[in-house]
Amino acid sequence: MRLNSKELVYIAQNCVTCDKEGLLLFKEKQDGLLKRGETYLERYFRLKGNLLFYFKNKESVTKSEPIGLMVLERCTVELESEEEIPNAFVLVCEGENHVFKFAAMSEEDRDHWIQALHIASYECLKMQLESLTDQLQGKTGKNPFPQQAQQHTGIDLDSHTEDQVNEDCILEISLSCLDLKCDSSGQPPNPLIVIHTLEPPDQLLWSHHNHTEIVEKTCNPQFLKTIGFGDGENVNLITRVKVTIYHVVERMTGTMVQLGHSIFTLRDIIAAEDNTLHLSIKSPDLHDCGKLCVIGWTNSALPISPVFQTDKEDEYIEQEVKSKSINKQEYSPKNLYENVICKSFRFSTNSQKEVLQVYEYMAESRWSYDIPHKLLCLFVEEEKRKVSLLQEMGEVHTLKPVVTRIIKNINLYLLIYIYKEWL
């Protein structure tokens, strides 16, 4: 890493306001003629942003350069109870074996230093900003910092870990967009939709739920992959769903830029006519930038969360859902295979009233697990039998006379064989 040493020295010596400064005991190596090893020495520290400078003493702050500098990124601050010195704490940096050890002059001073170092990193401040932004957007439905949404972000487009298995979900939706904006060069975007959910009051932050496939070079994408909700037993109708539309700039790295978003609840889908929602897409600066169509259907009678069973509207919705629910096939590959991953796709047909529902299954044969497991069990039993046999034979020194006698007999037989061959 290259650093501008003159600028750093200027910041260390001339910063008017520091986030934290004061004396600390710092454990350093002593490589002198009479002193070797590590010992605690008194040093004067100054914290500015995520930069922690330390000087020989307070008087040397304006007279000489700092002795050292620590960049507080990807590190944690922890209490140290094993040190003999009181009020000790350590700074552990990711990827480094060396641990920086400190000790404060008092317990109160130690707690203040730990708090200041903990929130000094850029990553910590970024997480706090994202958390507060999500809470504001969850309550108001608006992004308080719309300029942030224009920044390029990345996502693992091939990840299946967060995808819900559509075979077990209760409610499914398919998505399509109309009149998306072209880029500055007039080229149509490569749309991708990312789904986030929020379940108040238990959940305060938006959590990633699923994403669609990429539809290349179109302003009117029809996404074939469907999105499922519910765990097979229940679905919460007040769950808020945020649909964010991105333009994928680079597929390999997952680099993309936000085009807009829409927010609705699962209750809105069930209560809508023909279970179809038509929503406007809001750009990061809260202007209309297209339209979103959401079509929903249920795979079974929809269980209503017990918290909302007293609402007459939910009772009416439950009756409507039972009449519109789809009877799925009883066959499930989970009965025959392991590690089943299921995706659902929905295709339009020539008939406006009929659609084609396709389920894609990826699974492993149970034999691919059972046979290696049985073989390992057999190997373990064989090794146990051998260990038991060795234990029954006793200690090794008791076998020494027997082994010596066998070797002598072998040597005697070899001599007799050689003698016979020579004759």
The main sheet comes to: 7 strands, antiparallel
CATH topology description of the largest domain: Immunoglobulin-like
Distance between the termini: 81 Å
Gross CATH architecture of the largest domain:
Sandwich
**Which series of helices and strands comes N to C?**
HEEEEEEEHHEEEEEEHEEHEEHH
Main sheet: strand order: 4-3-2-1-7-6-5
Query: What would CATH call the homologous superfamily of the largest domain?
Result: C2 domain
Q: Would you summarize the structure shown here?
A:
With 423 residues, the protein is α+β, with helices and mostly antiparallel strands.
Secondary structure topology:
Layout: H1 5-14, E1 20-31, E2 36-48, E3 51-55, E4 68-71, E5 75-79, E6 88-93, E7 99-103, H2 107-118, H3 122-140, E8 171-178, E9 191-198, E10 207-211, E11 227-229, E12 240-250, E13 255-265, H4 266-271, E14 276-282, E15 288-298, H5 312-324, E16 337-348, E17 355-365, H6 367-393, H7 400-422
Key traits:
423 residues; alpha+beta; PH-domain like; Immunoglobulin-like; 3 domains; seven-stranded antiparallel sheet; four-stranded antiparallel sheet; 7 helices; 17 strands
Could you characterize the architecture of this molecule?
With 423 residues, the chain is of the alpha+beta class. It has helices at residues 5-14, 107-118, 122-140, 266-271, 312-324, 367-393, 400-422, and strands at residues 20-31, 36-48, 51-55, 68-71, 75-79, 88-93, 99-103, 171-178, 191-198, 207-211, 227-229, 240-250, 255-265, 276-282, 288-298, 337-348, 355-365. The chain has a seven-stranded antiparallel sheet, covered by helices on one side. The model is unreliable at 148-152, 160-165 and 301-327 (pLDDT under 50).
